[in-house]
Amino acid sequence: MIQKNALVSLLKGYRKANELIAEEKKRRLAHLTTKDSLREYIALCELAEEGVKSEDIEKLQKKKIEFLLKRRNLLDGVKR
Questions:
Q1: Which residue range(s) make up the domain with 60?
Q2: Considering 7, 14, 25, 73, which has the largest number of Cβ atoms within 10 A of its Cβ?
């Protein structure tokens, strides 16, 4: 079983990582041109369309469910 302190430490690490990622996004987006922004948006739209059309979407959904169940079981095992 995972100790509560280890989980708290892990969550603090995730929080710090999220803060750093948000700061980096702000810096990057501040220098993004309209043309670059549009190019990224179109690429994301194409990727989304491709994913929806893909037959592998069911596999991805199953993997997501497996991940969420494993995480839930892990968190259920945390000592209180």
A1: 4-76
A2: 7
CA distance 14 to 25: 16
CB proximity list for 60: less than 8 A, separation 6 or greater: 51
Number of domains in the chain: 1
Q: Write down the pTM of the prediction.
A: 0.45
Cβ burial 66-76 (10 Å sphere, 16+ → b, else e):
eeeeeeeeeee
**Diameter of the chain measured on Cα atoms:** 52
